[in-house]
Design brief:
The protein is built from 17 helices and 26 strands. By secondary structure, the protein is α+β, with helices and mostly antiparallel strands.
Length: 632
């Protein structure tokens, strides 16, 4: 029995990003994904299957160190042939490629991904028809005997996830058959263990194995795949959550979140309400009761921080896999409940996580984002690191669009305000809804040079550009349809909006109320050319650090600002009046507004502030003690 949700995703390919800064980040990621060679992605799988070997200087002449097949051209770091985690990037890559194809329709992406799946099938056949990994089956036998191996389940999960999305998104039937073969191996392997032994095995990092078995069962309805769901149910963790215990503090967040995503999928495909209760108990423990730093993170160095005592954990900072998987979980809960608070959370972690972890010029990953004074991003390389975050970076920046528009009944909900279009049908009407963002009358994060901006500064017979940087996000929705269509359009009002929200349909104002963290509904018969203009006023605000009320971070709308300073600096002023501590700085550059650029005023030492996602190699600080002056 599959369970219904309040919101649902549009079919793959219905939503397309519009040209602009967000699409530029997507394209940067696409370029990197496509730059990884087939030979390097497959190398360790070939090696394990006996389809490739390298003898180095074993011949009668010296081997070249510069040929395409020499070690200096291989993938290293966590993809090294000597690393136990090798092969994890393959699954991330397949997922990213499938989503990139869905967004672009680029046949080169499809051809490359289909070829790689076909080559993996050859490896699986060479291994006997079931086992498929970049490491030997003996890794699984070693963990069963109590010996430590670095997370083989985790790596297998990534591969299964990639194959699943190659099937469900790209329509590759071969990928599904390969999943079934892997499932047969694991069904037989786990069949030898009793419940206690399985609990012991699941205490190692299993990644999202539960999720992939649920994914597979959702397709096949095979009783063996249902049994794998039951066997990979992490009872010790789930039962403790249901009992109201805090089994998160100082535990490995990377391990736990994928298990909860597995519980979520298990509820969706089995209807067992226990799984849904596990997910809800986890969110309460991880987010509601724990709190988070201004970026939305409740983790530091991959561990959950103590509830309400975050100030003592300002170390290496949030980790990208945690960020990405919590966004995935928030999206699941949004679909189940329709509660816009989950969309608010997703937005916070998108701007201050996904975009902030990605280098805005070369697309590389920063494993952690430090929250402490004097932090610096440490960037991975193209082929030398391949951390876990390297993989989730490829996925995260390949899949913004499913969260923008969602379906609810016969209506359309705008859940994220990212410029894009969605195509849909209602009865006989073929409809396109275009979401645009105005970067002149409002601010547009990550803006740079554009034709639109150049026209704005050269033409004089168009609306005047504001004298100073606007304090609002300004959007326009345009409905195009071949015939009239009646449906409800729902618009999310974000948590950060100030008073003065305006919504106009064909120039006529809606009455509201426009409450932060809510949806407004516009139900009508829509006609071709109808428009909805939306303006969200925003402002500079502070958020206190849990456990240290006089230590604050500055936010401009949903976006975290950081001070470019190499150590802790105390600011003077009233933290409830941030506009008297910071003032606009370098607000305009040619044809665009520099969103989030500020500098201090009235301080012992001047500090410039920029958005966290703008930081490349600068040393920065997120939080600042404020010496309160309530008369300022």
């Amino acid at each position: 029995m599959e369970m219904n949700s309040i919101l649902s995703s549009f079919s793959v390919g219905c939503i397309k990003l519009a040209p602009g800064p967000f699409n530029a980040r997507f394209e940067l990621n696409k370029q990197y994904v496509m730059s990884l060679t087939n030979a390097n992605l497959l190398r360790n799988f070939y090696l394990e299957a006996g389809l490739w070997s390298y003898s180095g200087n074993g011949g009668t002449t010296a081997a070249s160190t510069t040929s395409m097949d020499s070690p200096d051209q291989w993938h290293w770091g966590w993809e090294s042939p000597t690393c136990e985690l090798r092969g994890h990037i393959m699954g991330h890559w397949l997922s990213a490629a499938a989503r990139i194809y869905a967004q672009t329709g680029d046949m080169l992406v499809k051809a490359k991904a289909d070829h790689i799946v076909n080559e993996l099938a050859k490896c699986q056949e060479a291994n006997g028809g079931e086992w498929l990994a970049a490491f030997p089956e003996t890794y699984m036998h070693r963990i069963a005997s109590g010996k430590y191996v670095w997370a083989p389940h985790y790596t297998i999960h990534k591969l299964l996830m990639g194959l699943y999305e190659m099937y469900t998104i790209m329509g590759n039937e071969q990928a599904l058959e390969m999943m079934k073969g892997i499932a047969s191996w694991f069904y037989r392997w786990t069949g030898q263990f009793n419940l206690e032994k399985m609990d012991e095995l699941l205490d190692l990092e299993t990644g999202g194995m539960l999720e992939t078995w649920a994914d597979l069962y959702g397709i096949t309805k095979d009783e063996q795949h249902l049994e794998l769901i039951h066997r990979y149910d992490r009872r010790r963790f789930f039962d403790a959550l249901l009992a109201g215990q805090d089994v998160l503090t100082n535990k490995h967040a990377n391990t736990q979140i994928p298990e909860i995503l597995g519980a979520a999928k298990a509820w969706e495909v089995t209807g067992d309400t226990r799984y849904r209760k596990v997910v809800e108990a986890f969110w309460k423990c991880a987010v509601t009761d724990r709190g988070y730093v201004c970026t939305g993170a409740g983790d530091n160095a991959e561990l959950w921080m103590p509830a309400g005592e975050i100030s003592s954990r300002m170390g290496v900072g949030q980790e990208h896999c945690v960020n990405y998987n919590m966004m995935r979980l928030a999206h699941v809960l949004l679909t189940w409940t329709g509660d816009p608070a989950y969309a608010d959370y997703w937005e916070r972690r998108f701007y201050n996580g996904v975009l902030a972890h990605q280098h805005r010029e070369n697309g590389m990953i920063s494993y952690f984002l430090g929250m402490g004074a004097g932090s610096r991003k440490s960037w991975g390389s193209e082929t030398g690191h391949f951390w876990c975050c390297h993989g989730t970076l490829m996925q995260a920046n390949a899949s913004y669009e499913p969260m923008i528009f969602m379906e609810e009944g016969g209506g359309v909900s705008v859940c994220q305000w990212i410029p894009s279009t969605v195509k849909l049908t209602r009865d006989d009407a073929k409809i396109e809804i275009e979401l645009e963002q105005d970067g002149q009358q409002g601010i547009y994060p990550m803006s740079g040079w554009s034709v639109t901006g150049t026209i704005a500064i050269t033409k004089v017979d168009i609306p005047t550009i504001p004298v100073h940087r606007p304090d609002a996000f300004v959007y326009k929705l345009t409905i195009r349809s071949n015939k009239e269509a009646e449906f409800t359009l729902k618009l999310r009002i974000p948590w950060w909006v100030r008073e003065g929200v305006t919504v106009q349909v064909n120039g006529i104002s809606e009455s509201g109320p426009f409450t932060p963290t809510s949806f407004i509904e516009i139900s009508r018969v829509w006609r071709n050319g109808d428009t909805v203009n939306v303006e969200f006023p925003k402002g500079l605000v502070t958020e206190s650090l849990a456990g240290s009320p006089d230590v604050v971070a500055f936010m401009d709308g949903p976006i975290v600002l950081v001070g470019l300073t190499d150590g802790e600096r105390t600011l003077n002023g009233n933290s409830f009046e941030p506009g008297k501590i910071l003032t606009a700085d370098r607000e305009r550059n040619h044809g665009w507004w520099n969103h989030g650029y500020y500098r201090t005023i009235g301080q012992d030492r001047g500090i410039r502030f920029i958005p966290l996602y703008e930081v490349k190699d600068e040393v920065y600080s997120v939080y600042f003690p404020v010496r309160q002056d309530h008369h300022s």
